[in-house]
Amino acid sequence: MDDTALLEAIAQARDTDAFAELCRRYTGRLCSFVRGRGLDDAESVVQDVMLTIWRRAGTFDPTRAAPATWIFTITRNRSTDLLRKRQRPTPDPRDPAFVTTQATTSTPAPDKAAEQSRQLAAIERAMDELPNDQRELLALVYIQGTTIAEAAKALQIPLGTAKSRIRLALASVRTHLSLEHSHG
Amino acid sequence: MVEHHLPDEVLLEYAAGAADPGHALIVACHLTLCPTCRQTVASYEALGAALTGVSTAISTPTANEDTLVARIMAGVDPTLPSETETVELPSTDPPASPHDAVFPWPLQQIIGPFKRLAWRRRLPGLRTFDVAISGARTVIRMIEAGPGMKVVGHGHTGLELDLVLAGGLEDLTRGGEFERGDIQRADADVTHTLEVLPGEPCLLLTVNEGPFVPDGLYSRLVYRYLGWS
User: Fold this and answer.
1) Which of A71, A177, B79, B193 is deepest in the core (most CB within 10 A)?
2) Is any Cβ of chain A less than 8 angstroms from the Cβ of B210?
C-alpha cells in the first residue's frame, strides 16, 4: 500500500493498522529532520505531528501535494512554531512598525490555503529538476540546519561556489514557479 | 542596479532556521518593514518542506523507533472522526506591546525601545550601541550618525548588512540611496564610502561577518579608534 492509500484508509476507515504503518515509515525521518533543526525533544514533536496527521488525514488532497510533502509541511510548521518561541526572532503583524500591502491582507483564507497547496506542488516539481549538487546543498541547509558556510566546508567546496549554487537553485525554483503561475 | 533587499542565501538560512543570530535579527527586522521579502521567506519555507518531503537522504533511524510508534499509537482515538476542514491554528503568543514604532519589535525584544537605548557617544554626531546576542558570530551594532557624516572608505572581511531605520544613507562609491526599511549590503570584495543624507540623523542596525578593512591612512585611524577594524 503506498502512502496515499494509507492516508485514505486513515481518513475514511480510521484504520489504525494503516496509521501504524505510516508511523513506521516516517518517524525516523521526521526525528532526523526535527533534530537537524536544532530541537532536542524531537520525539515529542514527532509524536505531536503524527497525532495531528491522524486527526487531519481527511484534509490531505493527493492532487495538491505528495504525502511526504504534506507530512513534512506539518512537521516543518510545528518545528518553526517551536523555534520561533525558543530562538528565531520573527516579525509580528501587531507591531506598529509592521508594513503591510493590499495584496497580503486582502486574500481570503480559503484561497490562500489553496494557493499554498498549489505552490507546494509546483515547488515539488521544480525540486525534481534541480541538479544533484544544488539539491545536496539545499538538503544540508534545510535538513541538517547548517549555515551555507558550514555546508561548503562539509562538501569541501569554496564558499563562493556554495553561494552560487544556492542562488542558481533558488532562481531555478522561482522561474519554475512563475512559469507555472503564468500558465495556471 | 543597487539592491535594497537581503541576499537570497541569508533569507534561505533564516527560512531553514540555520541563520546566525545576528543575521536572524536583521532579517526579522527587515521582514517587519518589507512585504516582498516576507513573501520570499514564505516561499523558501515551503521549498524546505518540499525538499525534506522528497529527499531520500534523511533516513537516520531513531534508536527507539518502535517505542515511539507505540507511544503515538497509545494516543490514537479510533472513534474520533477525521477532520475534513483545513483549520488555521491561532497563534499562542501573547500580543506584542512595543513602546514605539522606531525599532521593529524583534529588535525591541532584545535592546528595548529607541528612546531608552543607552547610546555611547563616539564622535561629534556619532553614537553607537553594541548588541550582544548569545551564539552570534557576527558583529551586531546600532549606529546613529548625523546628516552629512561619512562612513569613510572601507573594505570587508565578510558580508556587511545595514538596515536603515531612520534618515537616509548614500553609497558614494557604487551609487544608490537607502531609506527606512532598505538594506545596504556589501560583500568581501567591495570597498566603498557611505554618507548620511541631509535632513535627519541616520539610524542603522548593522550586522557584519567580520571587521572593516580600512582604505587609507585616515580610514585606518578612524576605525582603529572606533574599534571597527
Assistant:
1) A71
2) no
Cα separation, B130 vs A66, in Å, equals 47
Assign domain B112-226 one CATH number from 2.60.120.10, 2.60.40.420, 2.40.128.130, 2.30.30.40: 2.60.120.10
The arrangement of strands across the sheet holding B126-131 comes to B120-123, B126-131, B139-145, B202-208, B160-166, B183-186
- Cα B13 from Cα B5, distance rounded (Å): 15
Tell me whether B1 touches chain A (CB under 8 Å).
no
| Range scoring the smallest mean pLDDT among A109-123, B42-56, B69-83 | A109-123
pLDDT recorded at residue B18: 80
Q: pLDDT band for B80, please (50, 70, 90 cuts).
A: confident
Supply the pLDDT for residue B90.
38
Residues of A in contact with B60 (CB under 8 A): 28-29, 31-32
Q: Is B74 within 8 Å of chain A by CB?
A: no
Name, in order, each residue with C-beta under 8 angstroms of B56's C-beta and a sequence gap of 6 or more: none
Contact: B52, A76; criterion CB under 8 Å:
yes
Contacts of B45 in chain A (CB under 8 A): 76, 80
Of the segments A111-125, A130-144, B96-110, B113-127, which one has the largest average pLDDT value? B113-127
Q: What is the residue extent of each domain of chain A?
A: 1-89, 128-184
Joined together, the cell numbers standing for residue B98 give 512595543
Closest chain A residue to B83, measured at CA: A56
Confidence of residue A108 (pLDDT cuts 50, 70, 90): very low
- Cα-based torsion angle of the residue sequence B168, B170, B176, B181 in order, rounded to the nearest 10 degrees: -30
Predicted-complex ipTM score: 0.75
What is this structure's pTM?
0.73
Q: What pLDDT, on a 0 to 100 scale, did the predictor assign at position B164? A: 98
Q: What is the CATH number of domain A128-184?
A: 1.10.10.10
CATH architecture assigned to A1-89: Orthogonal Bundle (1.10)
- Give the count of beta carbons closer than 10 Å to the beta carbon of residue A115: 13
CB contact under 8 A, B72 and A42: no
pLDDT at B57: 39
B73: closest chain A residue by CA: A20
